[in-house]
Design brief:
Blueprint (H helix, E strand, L loop, with lengths): L1 E3 L13 E4 L8 E6 L12 H9 L2 E4 L3 H21 L5 H4 L2 H15 L8 H17 L7 H11 L3 E4 L3 H8 L4 H9 L2 H16 L3 H9 L7 H20 L2 E6 L9
Parallel strand pairs: 3-6, 4-5, 4-6
Antiparallel strand pairs: 1-2, 2-3
C-alpha cells in the first residue's frame, strides 16, 4: 500500500511528495519521493520526514544509477555524435505535415536566423538542450535534487542504484512529437523560465493533480511513454523493496494519476 506522509504541510491524500510503501509481505517499509531534476534552491527545503525516511532504509534508488550516470551519458553522446555524422540530417519540413509546417515555418526562420527549409530536427534538439542547460546553470545548488539525495544515502553507506535504464529515458527524447519539439525550440529564455517558475510553485505546494494536468498536454491524453516507464519502474521498485527497505527518488511527474 501507499500511505501519505505529511511533508511540512497538510494536504489531500493525492497531494504529497513523500509516500510510504508497506504491506504485501514487506517486513519494513520503503519510501517513494517525487523530485525535480533542477538545481534551484527553493526545491531543496526538505522536511525532517524525508531525512528520517532515508535514514530508516537500507538502500537508495533514483531513476538512473548515479554511480554510472556520467559514464553512460558520455558513451551516449559519443554514439549520438557518430550516428549524426553517418546520416543525412532530417529537415523539419520533411518530418511534419503541410499544415504544421505552414503554422511554424516563419517563426522557425526568425528563431534560427536562416531559411526555414534548412532547419533540421538536430537544430531543434540543440536549441532545447541549450535552454535546459541555461536553466540548470542559473540554479543555486551545485547539483540537482536526485543527485543530492543520492549523495546523502551514499555517505550513510547504503546500497545505491537505479530503477530505469538510460534507453528508457532516451525513448522520450527520441519520440516522434515533432510539433512539441518545435514549440519548445521556439521558447525564449524568459518564456521557458516562466514555465519553470510555475512548475516550482506547484511542486512546493505539492499539487500533484496540477502537475499531472501540466504533463497531459493540450489534448488531455497521458503520455504513453511515461506510462510505459512508470510500469517498469513500479515493477523494479516492487522487486527491490522485497529485498531490502529502499528510498526511491523519481521525477514528480511520475507520481500522480491512476497510471502514476
Amino acid at each position: 500500500s501507499l500511505d501519505f506522509i505529511s511533508y511540512g504541510q497538510p494536504g489531500k491524500l493525492s497531494n504529497t511528495l513523500l509516500w510510504r510503501i508497506s504491506g504485501n509481505g514487506l517486513t519494513k517499509p520503503s519510501y517513494l519521493f517525487g523530485t525535480m531534476h533542477l538545481t534551484d534552491k527553493r526545491i531543496f527545503y526538505f522536511g525532517d520526514s524525508l531525512y528520517n525516511a532515508i535514514e530508516q532504509t537500507q538502500a537508495f534508488a533514483a531513476e538512473l544509477d548515479m554511480n554510472r550516470l556520467g559514464t553512460q551519458m558520455v558513451n551516449q553522446l559519443m554514439s549520438d555524435k557518430e550516428e549524426k555524422a553517418a546520416r543525412e540530417p532530417v529537415k523539419v519540413k520533411e518530418a511534419v505535415n503541410a499544415e504544421t509546417w505552414n503554422k511554424y515555418k516563419d517563426l522557425l526562420a526568425s528563431k534560427f536566423y536562416k531559411p526555414a527549409e534548412k532547419i533540421t530536427l538536430d537544430d531543434l534538439e540543440e536549441m532545447e538542450s541549450a535552454l535546459q542547460a541555461e536553466i540548470f546553470k542559473k540554479g543555486d545548488m551545485p547539483t540537482f535534487v536526485d543527485a543530492y539525495l543520492f549523495d546523502i544515502a551514499r555517505k550513510q553507506g547504503k546500497w545505491v542504484g537505479g530503477i530505469e535504464d538510460l534507453q528508457d529515458q532516451l525513448e522520450h527524447i527520441n519520440s516522434e512529437d515533432i510539433e512539441g519539439k518545435i514549440q519548445t525550440a521556439l521558447f525564449d529564455d524568459k518564456y521557458y523560465r516562466s514555465g519553470i517558475e510555475r512548475l516550482i510553485k506547484i511542486y512546493n505546494a505539492q499539487f500533484l493533480d496540477s502537475i499531472d494536468a501540466m504533463y497531459r498536454g493540450e489534448n488531455g491524453q497521458k503520455d504513453y511513454i511515461m506510462i510505459k516507464r512508470n510500469r517498469k519502474m513500479a515493477q523494479r521498485m516492487d522487486s527491490l523493496s522485497a529485498i531490502r527497505p529502499t528510498f526511491f527518488a523519481v521525477g514528480v511527474a511520475h507520481l500522480p494519476g491512476d497510471s502514476g
